[in-house]
Amino acid sequence: MLAEVLDVLAITPDGCYLDGTFGRGGHSAAILSRLGPAGRLIALDRDPAAIDSRQDLAADPRLERIHARFGDAGPLLAARGLAGRLQGALLDLGVSSPQLDDPERGFSFRADGPLDMRMDPSRGQPVSAWLATASEREISDCLWQYGEERRSRQIAARICREREVEPLTTTRQLATLVAAVNRGGAQRIDPATRTFQALRIFINEELEQLQRALRELTAALAVAGRLVVLSFHSLEDRIVKRFFRDLAQARETAGTGAGASRFQLVFRRSLTADDAEIARNPRARSARLRALERVA
Ligand SMILES: C[S@@+](CC[C@H](N)C(=O)[O-])C[C@H]1O[C@@H](n2cnc3c(N)ncnc32)[C@H](O)[C@@H]1O
Q1: Residue 293 reports pLDDT greater than 60
Q2: What average pLDDT does this structure show over 209-221?
Q3: Is the four-CA dihedral 102, 175, 209, 135 of positive or negative sign?
Q4: Which of 51, 156, 169, 253 is the most exposed place for a label (fewest CB within 10 A)?
Q5: Could you give the 3-state DSSP secondary structure of residue 108?
Q6: Which of 260, 215, 207 is nearest to 72 (CA)?
Q7: CA contacts within 13 A on the Cβ side of 53
């Protein structure tokens, strides 16, 4: 939904923008192409491999790339004197294709690799370490809360039984274990989908990051600035929808120091991908685009 994102961001050539999810730089490159010489783009990604990609953009003086989480955007922007000065911010949530496609990152249940799933391998613990010590209750709660996995209890019990025999260290081990529990019945998706999704969201604290980023980025917007969020999961979209609605309904919000701020929804319902885009990229089927504008 690149075209829609760019339309909604309504880029002014000398404005200052933030791309909180640089990935492989597709959105950042498109934003830069609409900025003039005085424009500025701060790009964040928590994945060191992502933030170092796209060397073709490295020499562009308008772009500053920072290896950081978008939940920490507030202090990073304040340190650059950009609090209350952002004309637009973008979050394109979830994992990127390069992350999913590299078995060494441990995101994929289709390929064998270490059971890691950290977007930033330099901090936190891999899924394998957490599964080695978490209680059965913690594991089943995680699978239920973040994956809406109906067999969360059975899967958690099986994990705890099998880890007594052999540590769970690979994606293949986990996918096989989950498939054994989730046998039978017509399945629309791979039996391991929900378990892998839940563990990824949990280990990367994705929903907490999103909540922090929504607060920090709305506080950093200039008047007429927009926060645009593209989500691929109902848990994320629900958080964005409620946060935007509450802020748009509040008569006024404590501002960035420049006084109270007011916000409005840019469109009432979320935008979704059209049939042509879904045919090109099946992942777009679950994409939801929402935007909020600071009006005062
Ligand atoms: C769907 S991809 C973004 C693709 C990007 N828009 C592009 O055009 O290539 C999501 C990216 O967000 C990053 N990411 C996810 N959560 C993050 C967070 N809390 N802070 C910073 N980056 C994050 C991931 O590492 C991944 O590179």
Answers
A1: yes
A2: 98
A3: negative
A4: 253
A5: coil
A6: 215
A7: 18
167's tokens: 């540590």
CA-closest candidate to residue 62, choices 43, 40, 45: 40
Cα 191 to middle of ligand 1, angstroms: 25
Residue 258's pLDDT is 47
Burial 153-176 (b: 16+ CB within 10 A, else e): bbbbebbbebbeeeebbbbebbbe
Assigned token pair, 43: 């790009």
Q: Which residues pair with 16 in a beta bridge?
A: 40
Q: Which residues line ligand 1 (CB under 6 A)?
A: 20-21, 23-27, 44-47, 50, 69-71, 92, 94, 96, 119, 209
Which atom of ligand 1 is nearest the CA belonging to 28? 8
Whole-number pLDDT of residue 255: 55
Q: Is the pLDDT of residue 23 over 50?
A: yes
The span from the first CA to the last CA of the chain, in angstroms, equals 28
Q: Cβ atoms within 10 A of the Cβ of 110, count? A: 14
Beta strands of the chain (E only): which ranges? Answer: 16-19, 40-45, 63-67, 86-92, 221-231, 263-265, 288-294
HSE on the CB side for 85, CA within 13 Å?
Answer: 15
Task: Give me the mean pLDDT over the 236-255 stretch.
Answer: 88
For 165-279, list the strands marked E by DSSP: 221-231, 263-265
